[in-house]
């Protein structure tokens, strides 16, 4: 069986690190943690977990610190996580299977990351986090760092997988999140100044300023990105920017272009279904979401959105069954951070890959369960 090293960079993550290491332990044979200047108990937590702990300076260059961790790893494969991420229990076995069964021509795998907000809202993004330990696979980019360029340049490539991970970093206080976001924005702008109008950097900046409520600026940047490239991923992200600005029909068109450009991409098809439901076309949403679920059964949010469609139709027991299926596969959807619910976060719903008024899976499950059991009927009389 192939061996796997967990590689991380951290700074002042005592609130998250222990949970991350515990979730990853079944999937890995060693843990390498590079600390970039913690002043809390982060390093002690890593040492207690049995990790190899190194120190380095960040200096505004996340790739440099990540590559330091790669250099220290000794296993056949590398798994990369951040401290505020969790590997669901079922995903650990998938990591082991992928690393052990990968043929000689397979060098890396993408995973689907669920980014959760305190009320249970979420968005996904594909990230390459499992790859062979290979001196030719390195991180690039001072911020928004990734190994994808080195894979492409060397002809290695990567393939999607059924592995998912949960990111709970948005449960941090809004002030902390926004300060970190503004720091990233500065670094992204620095990359843009150096690299020119890279469409993917433009879109990253568009999504970032959108989270700060700067929707007109976001629209302009996103339009520049899609004008420079017809990549389906950019069309998909453009859909989210358009939706944030209340342009639902334009968003549906963008998501449809993305789904047509990547027919195997259940993430794009999911958003087509969500927009169809938003615009009142339940029959179309039914067909789109059902087909997307069949094509990408590991994407639990498609099943969740089918459950919300059942709720809209008053099919309470069917909704309950679908919601319970999601929870059984990924309990991360049960997130409900009370402290986060007390903060005003008016732009949170702009990121949701579900309906605008989604209130978190615990709420929808409890409501549909009550209705299925005949309680609360007076609400609909």
Automatic annotation (TrEMBL):
UniProt KW Protease keyword: no
Lineage: Bacteria, Bacillati, Actinomycetota, Actinomycetes, Micromonosporales
Name of the protein in question: Glycosyltransferase
Organism: Dactylosporangium cerinum
Classification via Pfam families: Glycos_transf_2 (PF00535), TPR_16 (PF13432)
Molecular functions per Gene Ontology: glycosyltransferase activity
Enzyme Commission (EC) number: 2.4.-.-
Keyword hit for Glycosyltransferase: yes
Keywords, sorted A to Z: Glycosyltransferase, Transferase
Domain of life: Bacteria
Domain Glycosyltransferase 2-like: 5-125
């Amino acid at each position: 069986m192939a061996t796997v090293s967990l590689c991380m960079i951290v700074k002042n993550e005592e609130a998250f690190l222990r949970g991350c290491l515990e979730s990853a332990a079944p999937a890995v044979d060693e843990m390498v943690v590079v600390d970039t200047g913690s002043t809390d108990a982060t390093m002690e937590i890593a040492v207690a977990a049995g990790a190899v702990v190194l120190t380095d300076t960040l200096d505004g260059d996340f790739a440099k610190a990540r590559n330091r961790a790669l250099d220290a790893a000794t296993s056949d494969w590398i798994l990369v996580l951040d401290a505020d991420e969790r590997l669901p229990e079922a995903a650990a076995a998938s990591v082991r299977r992928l690393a052990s069964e990968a043929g000689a021509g397979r060098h890396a795998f993408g995973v689907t990351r669920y980014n959760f907000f305190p009320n249970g809202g979420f968005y996904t993004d594909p990230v390459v986090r499992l790859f062979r330990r290979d001196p030719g696979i390195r991180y690039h980019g001072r911020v928004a760092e990734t190994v994808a360029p080195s894979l492409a340049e060397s002809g290695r490539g990567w393939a999607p997988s059924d592995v998912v991970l949960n990111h709970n970093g948005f449960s941090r206080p809004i002030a902390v999140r926004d300060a970190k976001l503004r720091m990233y924005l500065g670094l992204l702008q620095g990359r843009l100044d150096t690299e020119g109008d890279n469409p993917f950097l433009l879109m990253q900046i568009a999504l970032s300023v959108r989270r700060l409520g700067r929707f007109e600026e976001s629209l302009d940047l996103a339009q520049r990105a899609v004008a420079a490239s017809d990549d389906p991923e950019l069309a998909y992200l453009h859909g989210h920017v358009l939706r944030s600005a209340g342009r639902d029909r334009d968003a549906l068109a963008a998501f449809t272009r993305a789904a047509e450009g990547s027919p195997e991409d259940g993430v794009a098809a999911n958003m087509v279904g969500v927009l169809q439901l938003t615009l009142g076309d339940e029959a179309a949403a039914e067909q789109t979401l059902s087909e997307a679920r069949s094509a990408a059964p590991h994407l639990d949010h498609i099943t969740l959105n089918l459950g919300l469609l059942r709720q809209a139709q008053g099919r309470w027991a069917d909704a309950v069954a679908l919601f319970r299926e999601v929870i059984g596969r990924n309990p991360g959807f049960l997130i409900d951070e009370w402290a986060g619910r007390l903060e005003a976060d008016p732009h949170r719903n702009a990121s949701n890959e579900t309906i605008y008024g989604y209130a978190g899976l615990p709420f929808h499950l409890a409501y549909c369960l009550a209705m299925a059991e005949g309680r609360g009927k007076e609400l609909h009389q």
